């Protein structure tokens, strides 16, 4: 039977499009209940007659996914109409639902109700899409009830009053999710329920359960129609809110409309916005704008700052007071645009990790109590939850999700999701880092592992005889990596030709020979996006058999590769380039230290050492040429730990040392990436995956320019080459001075991002940091999915394979690029979080005095960078009790903070002696405290 299905779809341009599809209705769509005698049970997972079969409506799935993921909820039918509506409304929840349905250990099944002749519904004139879908859900629930008979109870779970009423009228059993959970007799499950927002009833600050008449705490958010109109007329400004990591009451919104960052000061002006929310901001009157000198560091005791509420009219808004008086500062320094949030355009709520604020246990146990959750991330406000298991949670790290934030509530409301483990346990705290950064560390599923070739794997005669593959086993190929590296995805060779030129090859693991488009393995890698490197372990994008054996270019074994081979002159000019799939056999897997030692030891004249020296000579020329073009040589504070192999605790900590060997490998990887970018863009100008580094704005570079001026330097930032030349000239008596300036320059840069070439014009492809008109990532497919994508493009450009269909779907390509950027950023943040955790562990029993450099001024202290350990943190000059005393003031022009009597002053980049010690000013929130000696 053929039936037309009509629905509305919003295009990327914002237009609503009517779509009509023809659906073939069938009678062989099975219920997937194991004991059903009428249906094929091959795909059945819903089990025993004694259980209740749950049919969920869309809102229950969207709002209660944390509860559904609990193993206590099973025997669930997910209707096709529900799954598609969830897919259209929330991609994150859809992926979690999809994971539940694919998990063989969970009893969740998908029923194609839109394709079954007895459950498909026709559209009715005048019926809304929501009403139509509710009717389809009720019809499917009724069919299940009739189909399974009295052998089992079928229950429609819905929180929609009207849908429930109609279901009961139609003879369908229906309950709310809360009612069903209560029937299970597991009170702890009730903690997982999302709490509805309440504008008129809330619990008081004493955490009891008495409803109070509430007063308004925050202004109302503007409706979306008014925000849109205000943005169009330039009254409001849109941007992402970023909360200062050293002061949770200070945030910034980058606004393209005014070409500057808008400072948002105080929780009142933030108006219930979270870090990462896309917000609409209204500028305050100019006499209420902030200078940099008036911005402060917030200490741990400031977490309960009273909300400073801006009245409904900006003209009446009170000035925000600052902890330290600046009345003696007569320097005329331009104020920074300041504003307040008037609406939330897109929320960034997700799950947060932390612990409950300590509180006395109430009389009796197991009763409902209200508690305040304190996130480990200070940028997140406290979250009010209710729980029936307070006694079990007080010493645990837990996960909490936000449900709502009413105008009458000082804190957002949320619900408990799950426990992670004991507070302070290293494994627990590491999992916190992963959850906070949305890193998927679960074991690979059976479906993913089934895509791998059986072990032991070796290059086959078919591989060697394949016409697409060149046999390069005769070449002297070697790899140079960090010590202990097992996932080796790049190797090199350098052969002197009779002409006096060099043949230089970059050989990259041929991951796409094993990871095929559309497979569960490829889908998993697409989602993960990148491998994540923590201090003590690695979380792989691909399963270990691939990353450490099948693909890894280990010494003395034959491996499949994708090679970029150049003929180069002794002056490192590229004469010709070729690309080929290949078979190689590495003769040596060297560490950076080993490679450097070989090059430095003049007694060694063996072939591999000679190749290394030749490559290093070429790399130095290539590097110099890049710098002359304007490539930046920046610096970062990379930290290296020595880890105890038994306890996994850090034994030593120090800055990561970069050697010539590192730079040599980097130079050839950069060259390979540029060559591949040119090749794929030439063949596929509209669908290549490239990487760009946007030019930083003048406003972004302003802190660097002010710092440089304060120490007598003049930096030219008119181009990347001008900045590079200025940085080269920025030298002082102190050998570390130049590196510090480069670290500060790095922090002023934008993030490099992946993009689809069809989405931008060629001038926007430019990579500012590398001064390269074109760039991509090709050289690390074991650990980055972007490189897998680029390998497929390169193979298609050479006619080896057909271009996969996804490359013809521009919106899908853009979505992949967006996910790669998100995953890359999260992996970076997780790595930093792991470093911070192990730094805390290291210093917990090792209070230390050391040297630091002042890198940023605030009105009550400064930010210090500690070169020896790569650590950065605030140093306070005033305490909470001294606020308002006016003891210090900031000279913004000279970048100094001075005592009022002139007896002491501290300047930017000045060396100071500090004491490092782990303290816990708030329960369960240890921090590394930096104190001035």
From TrEMBL:
Stretches assigned to the PIN domain: 52-165
Family statement: Belongs to the RNR ribonuclease family.
Entries under CDD domains matching the protein: PIN_Rrp44-like
Stretches the record annotates as Disordered: 296-336
Keywords associated with the record: Exonuclease, Exosome, Hydrolase, Magnesium, Nuclease, Nucleus, RNA-binding, rRNA processing
Ranges that cross the membrane: none
Principal cellular location given in the protein's record: nucleus
GO MF annotations in UniProt: 3'-5'-RNA exonuclease activity; endonuclease activity; RNA binding
InterPro entries, per the entry: Dis3_CSD2 (IPR041505), NA-bd_OB-fold (IPR012340), PIN-like_dom_sf (IPR029060), PIN_dom (IPR002716), RNase_II/R (IPR001900), RNase_II/R_CS (IPR022966), RNR_Ribonuclease (IPR050180), Rrp44_CSD1 (IPR033771)
Subcellular localization: Nucleus
GO cellular component: cytoplasmic exosome (RNase complex); nuclear exosome (RNase complex)
Protein name: Exosome complex exonuclease RRP44 A
Residue intervals of the RNB domain: 469-800
Domain of life, source organism: Eukaryota
Any GO BP: nuclear mRNA surveillance of mRNA 3'-end processing
Keyword Ligase among UniProt keywords: no
Biased composition (Polar residues): 319-333
PANTHER family: EXOSOME COMPLEX EXONUCLEASE RRP44, RIBONUCLEASE
Cofactor(s) in the UniProt record: Mg(2+)
Encoding gene per record: RRP44A
Cited SUPFAM superfamilies: Nucleic acid-binding proteins, PIN domain-like
């Amino acid at each position: 039977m053929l039936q037309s299905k009509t629905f509305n779809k919003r295009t990327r341009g914002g237009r609503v499009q009517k779509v009509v599809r023809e659906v073939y209705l069938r009678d062989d769509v099975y219920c997937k209940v194991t004991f059903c005698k009428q249906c094929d049970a091959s795909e059945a997972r819903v089990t025993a007659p004694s259980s209740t079969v749950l049919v969920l409506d869309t809102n229950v799935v969207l709002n209660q996914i944390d509860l559904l993921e609990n193993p206590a909820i099973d025997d669930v039918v997910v209707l096709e109409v529900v799954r598609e509506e969830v897919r259209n409304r929330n991609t994150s929840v859809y992926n979690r639902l999809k994971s539940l349905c694919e998990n063989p250990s969970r009893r969740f099944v998908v029923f194609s109700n839109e394709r079954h002749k007895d459950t498909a519904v026709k559209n009715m004139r005048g019926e809304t899409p929501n009403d139509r879908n509710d009717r389809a859900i009720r019809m499917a629930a009724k069919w299940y009830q009739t189909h399974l008979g009295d052998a089992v109870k079928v229950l429609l779970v819905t929180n929609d009053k009207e849908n429930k009423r109609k279901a009961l009228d139609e003879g369908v059993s229906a309950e709310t999710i809360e009612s069903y959970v209560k029937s299970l007799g597991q009170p702890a499950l009730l903690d997982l329920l999302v709490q509805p927002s309440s504008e008129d009833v809330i619990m008081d600050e004493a955490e009891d359960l008495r409803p109070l008449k509430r007063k308004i705490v925050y202004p109302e958010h503007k409706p979306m129609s008014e925000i849109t109109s205000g943005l169009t007329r330039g009254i409001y400004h849109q941007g992402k809110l970023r909360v200062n990591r050293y002061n949770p009451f200070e945030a910034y919104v980058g606004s393209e409309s005014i070409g500057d960052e808008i400072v948002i000061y105080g929780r009142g002006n933030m108006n219930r916005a979270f870090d990462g929310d896309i917000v609409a901001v209204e500028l305050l009157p100019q006499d209420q704008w902030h200078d940099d000198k008036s911005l402060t560091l917030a200490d741990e005791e400031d977490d309960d700052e009273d909300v400073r509420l801006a009245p409904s009219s900006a003209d009446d808004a009170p000035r925000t007071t600052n902890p330290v008086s600046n009345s003696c500062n007569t320097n005329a320094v331009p104020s920074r645009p300041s504003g307040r949030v008037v609406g939330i355009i897109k929320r960034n709520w997700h799950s947060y990790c932390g612990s409950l604020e300590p509180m006395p246990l109430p009389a009796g146990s197991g009763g409902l109590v209200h508690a305040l959750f304190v996130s480990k991330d200070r940028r997140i406000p406290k979250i009010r939850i209710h729980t029936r298991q307070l006694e079990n949670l007080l010493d645990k790290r837990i996960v909490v999700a936000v449900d709502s934030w009413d105008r009458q509530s000082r804190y957002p409301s949320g619900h408990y999701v799950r426990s992670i483990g004991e507070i302070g346990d290293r494994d627990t705290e590491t999992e916190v880092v992963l959850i906070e950064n949305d890193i998927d560390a679960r074991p690979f599923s059976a479906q993913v592992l089934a895509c791998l070739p059986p072990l032991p794997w070796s290059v086959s005669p078919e591989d060697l005889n394949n016409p697409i593959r060149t046999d390069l086993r005769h070449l002297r190929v070697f790899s140079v990596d960090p010590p202990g590296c097992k996932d080796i995805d790049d190797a090199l060779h350098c052969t002197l030709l009779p002409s006096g030129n060099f043949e230089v090859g970059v050989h990259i693991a041929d991951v796409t020979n094993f990871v095929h488009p559309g497979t569960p393995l490829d889908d998993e890698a697409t989602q993960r996006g990148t491998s994540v490197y923590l201090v003590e372990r690695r979380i792989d994008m691909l399963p270990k058999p691939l990353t450490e054996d099948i693909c890894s270019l280990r010494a003395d074994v034959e491996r499949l590769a994708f090679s970029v081979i150049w003929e180069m002159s002794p002056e490192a000019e590229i004469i010709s380039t070729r690309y080929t799939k290949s078979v190689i056999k590495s003769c040596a897997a060297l560490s950076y230290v080993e490679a450097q030692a070989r090059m430095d030891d003049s007694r060694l004249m063996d072939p591999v050492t000679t190749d290394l020296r030749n490559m290093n000579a070429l790399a130095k020329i290539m590097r110099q040429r890049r710098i002359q073009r304007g490539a930046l040589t920046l610096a970062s504070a990379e930290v290296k730990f020595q880890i105890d192999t038994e306890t996994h605790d850090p034994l030593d900590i120090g800055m990561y040392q970069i050697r010539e060997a590192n730079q040599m490998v980097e130079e050839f990887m950069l060259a390979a990436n540029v060559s591949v970018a040119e090749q794929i863009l030439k063949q596929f100008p509209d669908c290549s995956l490239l990487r760009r580094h946007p030019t930083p704005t003048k406003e972004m570079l302003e802190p660097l320019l002010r710092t440089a001026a304060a120490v007598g330097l003049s930096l030219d930032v008119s181009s990347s080459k001008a900045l590079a030349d200025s940085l080269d000239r920025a030298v002082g008596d102190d050998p570390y001075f130049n590196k510090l300036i480069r670290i500060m320059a790095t922090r002023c840069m934008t993030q490099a991002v992946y993009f689809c070439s069809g989405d931008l014009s060629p001038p926007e492809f430019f990579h500012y940091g590398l001064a390269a008109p074109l760039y991509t990532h090709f050289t690390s497919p074991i650990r980055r999915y972007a490189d897998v994508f680029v390998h497929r493009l390169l193979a298609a450009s050479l006619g080896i394979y057909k271009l996969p269909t996804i490359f013809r779907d521009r919106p899908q390509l853009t979505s992949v690029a967006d996910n790669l950027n998100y995953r890359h950023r999260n992996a970076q943040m997780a790595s930093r979080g792991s470093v911070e955790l192990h730094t805390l562990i290291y210093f917990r029993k090792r209070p230390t005095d050391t040297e630091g450099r002042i890198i940023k001024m605030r009105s009550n202290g400064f930010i210090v960078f500690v070169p020896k350990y790569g650590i950065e943190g605030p140093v306070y000059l005033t305490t909470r009790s001294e606020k308002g005393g006016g003891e210090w003031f900031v000279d913004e022009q000279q970048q100094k903070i001075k005592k009022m009597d002139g007896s002491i002053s501290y300047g930017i980049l000045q060396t100071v002696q500090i004491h490092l010690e782990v303290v816990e000013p708030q329960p369960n929130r240890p921090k590394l405290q930096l104190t001035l000696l």
